[in-house]
Design brief:
Elements lengths: L1 E3 L6 E4 L5 E6 L5 E6 L5 E8 L13 H8 L9 H9 L4 E6 L4 E8 L3 H13 L5 H19 L2 H13 L13 H6 L2 H11 L5 E7 L3 H13 L27 E6 L5 E8 L8 H12 L5 H9 L5 E8 L4 E9 L4 H17 L4 H18 L3 H15 L1 E3 L1 H10 L2 H11 L5 E6 L1
Parallel strand pairs: 4-8, 9-14
Antiparallel strand pairs: 1-13, 2-3, 3-4, 5-7, 5-8, 6-7, 10-12, 10-14, 11-12
Helix pairs in contact: 1-7, 3-8, 9-12, 9-15, 10-11, 11-15, 12-14
């Protein structure tokens, strides 16, 4: 089942899994999407704001990630310890995730504790104090986080590769900002970013598990009434962002970052597909065949046959209007040239000849199993609802997703590989 969930659409969808997906828009513009899962005693709820690192003003780089930390540091009603203790006391988990296009604050609790999760998360998102002293403490924490990532060559190669294939575009910037940007950030910068984006029309709340949709809406409305937000005026949700694919330049060729490491990190790739591209199912199968498991071509050729690397795989990152893909391997510095040659050879082979019927069937089984098993978790279903609302503008049932995967042919996979190779290739290396 595939149903549009644009700003003016509301309804109930009965999925083939026996769950019920419902969407409502509160008068103030806040959107609430739930998936009721019979027999489940837990629930995961997420508060999504459609702002990520790509949306930051030039003087506010890193502010989105800064806010992710600061919203846990206290409100007018609760201290940072109060927030942490509320979830610890019920055996729940709470955390947040900053991406390049969205930020999500989420919690997983027993169904009976969902009212508490709604109250605390609403308070955090709408009524953060952003205390100057806490900001300075968190500045130090974030600088430590960035230093930790810089010491991890696998993180470094991923960040630098994104900068290379999204040259000069906000999507190519590091999500957390740079140490220089975090050190220079002022409270006014962070607060301005908070007030610019954290508003009722930008908020999407998604929840999945043992819950009732109407009850969740009542809890949310009640919590909003007690928040610092003015929710008395009627408002419409923010419009879905444009999915028109951008032509972003790629810095082709080889770029090397020198670090005193024992193992070189290598990524070869280029511009990929946007998140809603119709070819995304064929791309998923391409990655399953090329670098998605122990039977994949990269694993078999790079590791099993030639012994060139311990870890190797392929990946894609898709955003509203752009994307990129890469083939990764970690190897001894002396083997870098051979590894790059094999990676490119295997990528070219995907475009030069159709994959075998056996490989395609195995890849479909891998995606089918991974999709269904992933949906056993309430957090996966909560995330799927957020993506449907913020990125694609439609809800796609599991059965429809599996049908799309099953409909992909060997010719489709070959065509998508050729499509990827129409753009320039970039190679990023972290090595001595």
């Amino acid at each position: 089942m595939r149903v549009s969930i644009g700003p003016d659409t509301a309804g109930v969808l009965n999925s083939d899994t026996g769950t019920t997906v419902t969407r409502s828009v509160l008068p103030c513009g806040v959107r609430v999407l739930t998936e009721q899962m019979p027999g489940v005693r837990s629930a995961t709820i997420g508060y999504w704001i459609a702002v990520g690192s790509r949306h930051e003003a030039d003087h506010q780089h890193g502010s989105t990630h800064f806010l992710e930390h600061l919203l846990f540091k206290g409100t007018a009603k609760r201290s940072a310890l109060d927030i942490a203790a509320a979830f610890d006391a019920v055996g729940g988990d709470s955390n947040a995730l900053t991406g390049k296009e969205s930020t999500c604050y989420y919690a997983r609790v027993l169904d009976a504790d969902l009212p508490m999760a709604v109250e605390v998360l609403t308070d955090m998102v709408t009524s953060a104090v952003i205390d100057p002293a806490e900001l300075e403490v968190e500045r130090g924490v974030i600088l430590e986080e960035l230093a930790m990532a810089e010491d991890d060559p696998a993180d470094v190669v991923q960040e630098r590769f994104a900068e290379q294939v999204l040259d000069g575009h906000p999507l190519g910037r590091p999500i957390g900002g740079t140490p220089e940007e975090i050190s220079a950030a002022t409270r006014d910068d962070v607060v301005d970013h908070y007030h610019r984006w954290y508003r009722p029309e930008e908020l999407v709340i998604t929840a999945a598990g043992g819950l009732e949709h109407d009850a969740v809406c009542r809890l949310v409305a009640q919590a909003l009434d007690g928040s610092r937000w003015d929710v008395s005026a009627a408002s419409s949700p923010a419009a879905l962002r444009s999915a028109r694919q951008q032509q972003i330049p790629v810095r082709s060729g080889v770029e090397q970052i020198s670090k005193p490491v024992e193992q070189a990190q290598v990524i070869l790739g280029g511009r990929g597909l946007a998140a809603s591209d119709p070819d995304r199912y064929a791309l998923s199968l391409l990655h399953a065949i090329l670098g998605g498991g122990m039977s994949s071509r990269l694993f078999q050729e790079v590791r099993e046959r030639r012994g060139l690397a311990y870890s190797t795989f392929s990946f894609s990152a898709g955003y509203t209007d752009a994307g990129y893909y890469g083939l990764y391997a970690g190897c001894l510095p002396s083997k870098v040239d051979k590894v790059i040659g094999v990676l490119e050879e295997q990528l070219q082979r995907m475009a030069a000849e159709p994959v075998s019927a056996e490989e395609l069937a195995r890849a479909k089984g891998q995606l089918r199993g991974g999709t269904v098993l992933g949906m056993e978790e309430t957090s996966s279903r909560m995330n799927r609802l957020g993506t449907a609302e913020l990125v694609r503008g439609e809800f796609v049932d599991i059965s429809e997703t599996l049908a799309e995967v099953d409909s992909v042919t060997a010719a489709d996979v070959q065509r998508v590989a050729s499509r990827l190779l129409t753009g320039p290739l970039a190679t990023t290396i972290v090595a001595p």
